[in-house]
C-alpha cells in the first residue's frame, strides 16, 4: 500500500483460524503495520466450531444445512456467550497486545446489523439492514472494530447470522476496497489443488458438483454477492506467516473471486 492511499479492508476470520494462536498473533502484527500506513478496517469473526463444542456439553446437538446452523431459540444464549463473549473478548485482547486500539462489538450494537429469521421455526437469520455509522465513527477516531455476527431482528429478538454473511454486509456498507476471508484452508480446493481464481459461473458449478461443501458454501455465496456489490477485491485463503496479508491483498495467494 502506498503511504498516501487510504484503504478500507474487511477481514473475516473463522473460528478455527482464531484458535491457531501463533498465526493469529502474526496476522494481528501485520494488521497493526497496515494500520500504521493509514489503512482502515473491520475484523469480523466466527467461532462456529466452539459454539458446537459448548452446545454439545450442554446436551444440544448442532444441526447444519448448507453450512448454516439451524438455530433453535435455546442456542441463542450459547451463541452470544461464545461469539459476542469469549471469542470477541479474546480477539480484542490479542489485538491490543499487537498494538491495535481494538473495540469489540456485536451486530446488535448500534445496531450495525438488523436481520430477519429465515423461517418462523428458526433463529438463523439473514441481514436486512446494515448501518456502518458506528464503525465509521470508531475508525475515524483511530479505533479498530472487532465484530461478532450475533445480532437481533427488528423487535430485539436474538438472531444468529453466519459470520461470512455479516462480513459481506459490512464490506458492502463500508464500500470496502477488499474483503478477505481467513480460514483453515489455503483457498478453495479442487482435486487437492488451490484454485487461484474463480468466476461466479465456476463457483456455482463447483457448488452444484459438490466440490464446494459445508462451511465453504456461505463463504463463496457471500463472495459472489460482494462481487455484485462492487467490493474491489475478494479473496479466500489462510494466514500462515508474515507477509500473507499483503499477498492476499495482492491476489498472490488464496482464491480470488472475479467476474
Ligand atoms: N472446495 C473446498 N475447498 C476448501 N474447503 C472446503 C471446500 N469444500 C468444503 N470445504 C470446507 O470448508 C471449511 C471452511 O469453512 P468453515 O469450516 O465454515 O470455516 P471458517 O470457520 O473459516 O468459516 C474447510 O475447512 C473445508 O473443510
Ligand atoms: C447461521 C450460522 O451458521 N452462524 C454461524 C455463526 C458463527 C460462524 O459463522 O463461525 P465460523 O465463521 O467459524 O464458521 C454459526 O452458528 O456457526
From TrEMBL:
It comes from Winmispira thermophila (strain ATCC 700085 / DSM 6578 / Z-1203). GO terms for cellular component: cytoplasm. The record marks 12, 219 as: Transition state stabilizer. The gene is argB. Residues 8-236 form the Aspartate/glutamate/uridylate kinase domain. It holds the Pfam family AA_kinase. It is an enzyme of class 2 (transferase). The keyword Amino-acid biosynthesis applies. This is Acetylglutamate kinase. Substrate binds at residues 47-48, 69, 160. The keyword Repeat does not apply. Catalyzes the ATP-dependent phosphorylation of N-acetyl-L-glutamate. Belongs to the acetylglutamate kinase family. ArgB subfamily. It is found in: Cytoplasm. Pathway: Amino-acid biosynthesis; L-arginine biosynthesis; N(2)-acetyl-L-ornithine from L-glutamate: step 2/4. GO terms for molecular function: acetylglutamate kinase activity; ATP binding. HAMAP family: ArgB.
